[in-house]
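User: My instructor asked us to take a sequence, write out its structure as tokens, and then describe one feature of it. I'm not sure where to start. Here is the sequence I was given:
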Amino acid sequence: MPDDKLSNSVDRALSMMELVAENANGMTNSDLSRKLQIPKSSASYILRVLEQRDYLRRDSNARYRLGLKLLSLTEGAMTHLDVREAAGPALADFLKKSKLPEVHLAVLDNGRAVYIEKLENEESFIRMDIWVGHRLPIHTTAIGKVLVAYLPEEEILKILEMRGMEKKTRKSIANPQKFLREAERVRRYGFAVDDEENSVGVRCIAAPIFDSKGNVLAAFGTSSVVLHINERNMPKIVDLVKIMAARVSRQLGYRL
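Assistant: Let's start with the prediction itself. The structure tokens for your sequence are:
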């Protein structure tokens, strides 16, 4: 299908879902084709696809309503919003106590670690190359290690195979079995370190945030230049990251 026709079909599908969402009694094919001023045959084709994918459902009166797929997508988005809200005070408290340049939250999405929140220390002259929405590999980052460490080994290996293991620096882990051993250390000690594995001169620390069912929901992390996170103060920073991550986990209903 040409790009312009595909784009038009996507636009129509989204418009249909929006119209159905606005009408508590649902809408028929005729209603939608009339509202959108498109042929009933075109509307029927799009509706059939949306119904097959569970974005819409058709009742006994041939009226379309929102399907369960949208509910599941919304729940995922709301979960991320919930963890950001729950973590807000802990993020601010961490910055105040650590004096480090920044602190962040990340989640796993399609085999990548994705930042969903970041706070910066306004008094620091150092700015890290991190932003909300930034996607990074799992094998070279502390947040990535934390987000996958508690998954079954076969799932970890699938992600590594799908995304590859590019060496970002000479310290990057580029062997799947070595990464599995790293993941085991994360589970054992409850935190992960990126020791110049993603960017030369930068060190990161992260710990898991668990949901009420004991699943890893997000990673609580921080990063700075190696002079700021060094052998002398790293134990203190690790402890603080773990304490703050545990605080957020408790707020989300996690209990040991």
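For the description part of your assignment, you could build on this observation: The domain at 3-66 is CATH 1.10.10.10 (Arc Repressor Mutant, subunit A). Try explaining in your own words what that tells you about the chain.
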